[in-house]
Amino acid sequence: xxxxxxKYGGTSVADAKCIGNVADRVAxxxxxxxxxxxxxxxxxxxxxxxxxxxxxxxREPAPKELDLLLATGxxxxxxxxxxxxxxxxxxxxxxxxxxxxxxxxxNHGKAKIEKIDPSRVMAALDAGKVAIVAGFQGVSKDGExxxxxxxxxxxxxxxxxxxxxxxxxxxxSDVDGIYTADPRICEEAKxxxxxxxxxxxxxxxxxxxxxxxxxxxxxAKFGVPLKVGSSFxxxxxxxxxxxxxxxxxxxxxxGITCTTGEAKVAIRQVPDKAGVTAEIFKPIAKAGIDVDLxxxxxxxxxxxxxxxxxxxxxxxRAMALAEGAAREVNAGKVEAAGDIAKVSVVGLxxxxxxxxxxxxxxxxxKEGIAIQMIGTSQIKVSIVxxxxxxxxxxxxxxxxxxGCRP
Length: 406
Known about the structure:
alpha/beta; Carbamate kinase; about 35% helix
């Protein structure tokens, strides 16, 4: 018998009809002779509603209490799916994060899974039941309920698959798989049959929202095969996320991504002295704010303009910390811009084929799009541009690279 972990996102369990559809899928998989674990998110919009409710009763909700509140979203989903399966004659047992043995650190809101004791889930599978597990949540060593951040249900599912030594993990949402670009922006975008773990991590970090980057990281570490597909349609076979040796040959660029969820912070006239940059980023790192692209421009007078990007949700905090750090190192003014987009070109083939960056910059130049920042890795080139050009850039780059062969 195969052990299969399936994850269903918020849109997949958005209402009673959707939950019934998921129950049909889970039941079919179980009746085919598989041991099935279904990891579910909160119903679509429920987490945002709970956050909004918390903000109405508290100006600054305590992280511990907020986690306790948000965890109720998944609690409702596991109970409803379990009830739906029972109606279809499938024995099911539901588990909250702590009942499933998901142990995390104590960083409320952004907790990381430290280990999983899958004994209770395994016992349910051994008894012939489907195990329904709440995603996004766990418990700290002190017994406090924690949540593991947006996209955390993906990570829950992959981590459980690793702990259970499952044959593979299936991630279901409202998209058919990993596209070559966002199909809402680019009509020509197509579902890919396979992408590598490394490509998927870069795509996720660059703005692709199909999979959370932490979940891909766990999958790569433990060798968990991932399948990404839609819970609403079987028109495609979805996309497999696999090791590099199983990747399709010949594709130079596998995907174009765009995110408008970042903001730019610039610190002017930073003294060009050893250790100054470290002092600026020290308080930002301590606050747990992720910094993405960084550029420095050194002027003739020996001072530097330092520019970096952070998540828009963290912009206010990052600005306050940057202003404090700028005063400490005797730098100039701090400026911010939220009207930016980060567009990235990702592909394993970029390692062995020159000219991708040139083609990217040439394509954008033909569209009259100015580049504000550039960042690169072995298989990714990212640029920051004005937000008003985001969709134009994605379509132009997809036309330039889609089907690009060596």
